[in-house]
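Re-run with default settings, no changes from the original entry. Doing this only to confirm the output is reproducible before filing.
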Amino acid sequence: MKRFKTILAITLCILLSFPATVASAATYTVTANNSLYSISKLFNTSINSLRQSNNFDEDSLTPGDKIYVPAHVYKVKSGDSMYEVATKYEIPVSNLKKANSQTGNSIVPGEKLIIPGVKPSKKSDTVISYSSSEVDLLARLIEAEAGGETQQAKIAVGAVVVNRVQSGDWASSIKGVINQKFGAYYQFTPVKNGMINKKASSNSKKAAWTALYGSDPSKGAIFYFDQSSTNQWLWSKKQTAQADHLVFVK
């Protein structure tokens, strides 16, 4: 039986043509006893829309799966409470908790809450800015570095680029980070050997978008390398995650 993994909500052709549409999607984590029917009711959408937006053809869900839902995302401010946020959007507190897999009332400033039943904001929810050409460049890097790995590994590679852009210690754009050199040394081998020019698969493109929307299986990594590497400098760094044959460190 095919299981859908963490993937982007919108089909590839729409993503490339209308990236603002992707900003309307929120990531929901499937919990025990969830069904497409219960999720569709919670987020005021249809089962068919959930199938199409998540690009899967079966109704089976597994706890922990990530799916994309049409919902507004609210960033918690100082002084907010679960009750106040629910009241602001005129939704039951119980629905707010369900949408965010919470049982308690505790929320903290900066936390992002999915607001079920509320139309998504038009504003982009990506964690860094991008151009369409940069999304394609990121996808091509992912393809070159992790084309034979799982989707989780692909997303983690994309997340490393995002982490570098956010860090302030590297270039401030996707293009700048990927093409960055220190002296004669390229930061990413595919840029040096030309593999960066290989067309990205649909899964690599989905992974790029997923990383841009904040998913980070690398857990904050700034570097990654193949587990067969003998580079002691890389191995000496703090390991944050491992996905398939790739090791992630910072």
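The mean pLDDT is 85. Strands lie at 25-29, 66-70, 72-75, 112-115, 181-182, 185-186, 223-226, 239-243, 246-249.
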